[in-house]
Amino acid sequence: MTLAERIQQHWRTPTAVSLALTPFSLVYGLVTKIRKAAYISGVLKTHRFDIPVVVVGNLTVGGTGKTPFVITLAERLKIRGWRPGIVSRGYRGKVTEAEIVPADGDPHHFGDEPVLVARKTGLPVAVARRRAQSVEKLLNESVDIVISDDGLQHYAMARSAEIVMVDGIEGLGNGFLLPAGPLREPPARLASADIRVRRGGEASEGEYSVTAALGSARNLVSGEEASLDEFRDVPLAALAGIHRPERFFDLLRQHGLTITAHPFPDHHQFCADDIPAETTVLMTEKDAVKCGRFASDRCWSVSQVTEIPEELIDKLESVIHQTGQVNLSA
């Protein structure tokens, strides 16, 4: 276990270790305040655009289901007549200048999540180290709205609306800033978000609740689709290189499946040796984009279905129509 992993074990509730790290959190908090003030005052440049930019982010380190939410949000906006494009940092990818992600793109180059989004939506997806460059790239793709997968703290990119996601189980952890806790910004930052979303658990007042469930399975070689019910009473291996992989395993068990769990770190770069031999293997869609080149016909990806209430889409369109750009000083 790495030092970072040991520290993260103390992020759920205040402990002696997290309290000992609070002086470093105070320094981190001061730096983030100065940085944000520099954007508000114009010392650092904020790039503005002629089309709406919607940021889907979170206050905590780690996954809160942003990417599945972004996929569903983009699909729903398309149904309502919008022409969405998506931007991403391309975590652990190799892209520097802005590039459009093809549906068959290499996840090692573009990052696993942008490739997944491109494949699932069929919409333009742009990746760059600087998100503002990605937005500029999408302007050449005839989009009329941009969704940023993460980037809440990327104040160089102006936004028309902010959607902040909170994990229904972990919440905001112990409430401390990095490194004593999981927070990138103070809890009070939630108040300035246009839309607050709770993924799982019970939504608080002013929040929208979204749920995540497993869909069908798809064979990585043949493309055949099958219901998860067809895998009951069959010994299975399940692998997941995501934040909190046990959630994927729990959902499979709730479907009545008998699995042997194989957890990996988030964004793990899979190789053929990671795939369990001589058994049927179920994996997340995010992991499947990295396993396709060496997968056998024993490998299946399991889709995740995110349900977004219509009221949330209505609220988002209202914010877009009423405001130009979010006031960073709010």
CATH topology name of the largest domain, in short, is Rossmann fold
Number of strands: 13
Helix content bin: 25-40%
- Overall CATH architecture of the largest domain: 3-Layer(aba) Sandwich
* Count of helical regions: 10
- Our Rg estimate from Cα atoms comes to 20 Å
Quaternary organisation of the protein chains: single chain
Total domain units: 2
Biggest sheet details? 13 strands, mixed
What is the overall silhouette? globular
Overall SS class: alpha/beta
Distance between the termini: 40 Å
The CATH class of the largest domain turns out to be Alpha Beta
Proportion of β residues? Answer: 15-25%
Poorly predicted parts: 325-330
How do the helices and strands follow one another from N- to C-terminus?
HHHEHEEHHEHEEEEEEHEEHEH
Name the average pLDDT: 94
Structural commentary:
The protein has helices at 3-8, 16-20, 22-41, 66-79, 107-110, 112-121, 131-138, 245-254, 285-291, 310-322; strands at 53-57, 84-88, 99-100, 125-127, 145-149, 161-167, 195-199, 207-219, 225-226, 236-240, 259-263, 280-284, 299-307. It is α/β, with parallel strands linked by helices. The protein folds into two domains: 16-210 and 309-322, 3-Layer(aba) Sandwich (Rossmann fold), CATH 3.40.50; 213-305. Strands 1, 2, 3, 4, 5, 6, 7, 8, 9, 10, 11, 12 and 13 form a 13-stranded mixed β-sheet that branches. Helix 9 links the parallel strand 12 (280-284) and strand 13. Helix 4 packs parallel to helix 6 and helix 6 (112-121) packs across helix 9 (285-291). The chain is globular, with a radius of gyration of 20 Å.
